[in-house]
Amino acid sequence: LVERAGCTAVDSRTLRIEKRYPGVLGWPVRALYRLMRPWYIGTFHILAQKGKKAPWYSAGIMALKNIARWAVLAPLFIIPFLVLYVSDTLYFPFITGKGFAFRILVEIALAGWAVLALIDKKYRPQFSWTFVLYGALVLWMIVADAFAVSPLKAFWSNFERMDGWITLVHVFALFAIMGTVLTADKLWRSWWLTFLGASVLVCLYGVFQLMGVFAIHQGGVRLDATLGNAEYLAGYLLFALAIARWQACESRGGLRYALFVLAALEVSISHLTETRGAALALVVAVAVGAVLWMVD
Fold first, then answer.
1. For the chain, how big is the Rg over CA atoms in Å?
2. Which among 73, 80, 63, 103 is positioned nearest to 181, based on CA atoms?
3. What b-and-e string marks burial along 1-19, b requiring 16 or more CB atoms within 10 Å of the CB?
4. Helices H / strands E in the chain, number of each
5. Over the stretch 210-237, which tens digit does the pLDDT of each residue have?
């Protein structure tokens, strides 16, 4: 109630500010006030507490927490769209651009997550054997890479693959961040739907390739969309298909049917990649899924 009252009071003040400073000339004042809005809400919350003397820096901490939270959420919800990013100025444009952008976004999210974890304990990682085993794998890979034939390439990989230990530790950081922040804020479903939204754009790109609007990068007739490789596209669509089917079962109304249509589109695009391994994997997955469904 206190937080809601604080938001109401601040929103009323926002309306007064917008009326007092209208038009283009008043835009800087309005933008500055919106930027300071979390601080004002935090101040109201402190003043509303009875019998407690909050430290002078509490309002600043609340504002910092809000900024850090968005510094985490923005990269997390941008990452699903990296599949669309192609950097023509780099070696292996379909791989390096995505790889570097992924690492940068994860590092931004990691910095924000560190601040969130210091301020609020609900954003700190909880014990799970999955987290422990994954962390142990990351640590053991340091030892394995140190004794590799080429430790430099084992740690840093190359432009063609963009994997190595450096990517492994970034994926582990993403795993830890998503496991805490999306769980604490109950945003997992929103993130999965965002991922599916990105897959829609990838499929549409494949449709345009089929129509001849966009060129197929590998030549021939095997669709590769923005991944530059038909096998990569097929593997990506296998994950997208499974998630679309899962979210369709969890949804109701028009969204449910839209996700089933998306799943059918992803199957069609995957078939047009002419990737035998993906086709075999899909058949096996459907068979195993059917058995599990009957057992359940």
1. 24
2. 73
3. eeeeebeeebeeeeeeeee
4. 12, 0
5. 999 999 988 788 999 999 999 999 999 9
- Report whether pLDDT(2) > 70: no
Q: What is the dihedral of CA 276, 279, 280, 283, to 10 degrees?
A: -170
Stated pTM of the model: 0.79
271 is written with which tokens? 């078939």
The closest alpha carbon to 207, from 234, 195, 225, belongs to: 225
**Cα distances (Å, whole numbers) of residue 54 to 33, 41, 45, 60:** 24, 14, 10, 12
Given a contact cutoff of 8 angstroms between Cβ atoms, the answer to whether 242 and 285 are in contact is yes
Question: Which two three-digit tokens encode residue 274?
Answer: 């002419």
Quick check: 179 and 134 in contact, CB under 8 A? no
What is the pLDDT averaged over residues 7-20?
A: 60
Has residue 44 got a pLDDT over 90? no
Dist. CA 147–CA 196, nearest whole Å: 40
- What is the rounded distance in angstroms from the CA atom of residue 165 to the CA atom of residue 153? 9
- Report whether pLDDT(14) > 70: no
CA 244 – CA 254 distance, rounded (Å): 14
Asked if residues 124 and 180 have their Cβ atoms less than 8 Å apart, the reply is: yes
Q: Measured between alpha carbons, how far is 80 from 94 in angstroms, rounded to an integer? A: 15
Q: What distance in Å separates the CA atoms of residue 273 and residue 231, rounded to the nearest whole number?
A: 7
